[in-house]
Amino acid sequence: MAMQETLSSPFSHPKLHFPSTHHHFPSLSRPRNLRFPSFSSKTITPLPFIPPKFTQIPSMPPPPPPPIQTQQPPPHDSDSPSEFQEKMLYLDSIGLDSFQLINDHPSIIKTSLFDIKSTVDLLISINLTTFEFRRIISICLLILTTNTSDILPIFTFLLREAKVNGTDLNRVINRRPRLLLCSVKSRLRPTLYFLQSIGIAEVNKHTYLLSCSVEEKLIPRLDYFQKIGFSRRETTAMFRRFPQLFNYSVQENYEPKLNYFVVEMGRDLKELKDFPQYFSFSLENRIKPRHQACLEKGAYFPLNVLLRTSEEQFRHRLEVCCNTSLPLKTSPLSL
Q1: What is the C-alpha end-to-end distance of the chain, expressed in Å?
Q2: Judging by beta carbons within 10 Å of its beta carbon (0-12, 13-18, 19+), is residue 144 exposed, middle or buried?
Q3: Cα separation of 179 and 164, whole Å?
Q4: Got the DSSP string for 281-332?
Q5: Each residue of 124-165: pLDDT tens digit?
Q6: What's the CA gap between 172 and 121, in Å, rounded?
Q7: How far apart are CA 101 and CA 237, in angstroms?
Q8: Counting C-beta atoms within 10 Å of the first and last residue's C-beta, which end of the chain has fewer, N or C?
Q9: 131 near 141, Cβ under 8 Å?
């Protein structure tokens, strides 16, 4: 009622008069029944809080740790684990230590099992024994990572150009396995031509020299003998007579033996032209002991007699020389 009285009081004042018009307005003396939506206590009753339901994810146990691999590096990306394991088993089956191979030459991991088997089959095809095969691989492990397309031209070169007999091919490779790692174009063929140019005709008997560099090894040894007093012709004659001279070190072989030959033995260099094999004998175990024995007995032998004979023959000759008078001129003991 208070709201109704408030709305009607200004319009029911006695002094105010509204003339009637054609417009009809509803009487304002009665306030409208303003309808507001009623809010019952039920609609505003707070609902109890229900926490949202989440699906419970069961806890998963952690994955097991990878197995510990001792001394075995992880396989290369291009190899599947199964292929890597198969490669290791194959190397073990042919008598090779797979762990040692990988440790010394990790590049074998990148070599496919197919290529390794092809190389092994090729080497076995030249009738290498099991012992020889393992020895070759132990000397040159890189052979296992060499493709057969690189080895076959080497075999062809040895058979056709170096004139190696097919039955001797295994002997040649077994003696010098490094031949299988040489390029025919840049190493083997130039060395063959050089050896032939200085008069070594039967290179097939000295195939171990084919892996040597002409510029870095062969020519420096020829130059050394010319520096100590031999002519070019004398030098090449010595190397033709004994091509193994190319294999000896200048600092570790030539110099100490030449110094002992000239200073201690007091011999002429001309003897070396006839017997260049002098450099093949041990200075400590053969040259010095026999020279000292001759000094004690007052004997003098040519180089070939002094060094080439067996110990028994040398002692016998020494005793004969000391217990007799001057030998006949036809005797090998003659000075």
Answers
A1: 165
A2: buried
A3: 13
A4: S-IIIIIHHHHHHHHHHT----HHHHHHS-HHHHHHHHHHHHHSSSPPTTST
A5: 999 988 889 989 988 888 898 899 999 999 999 999 999 999
A6: 18
A7: 44
A8: N
A9: no
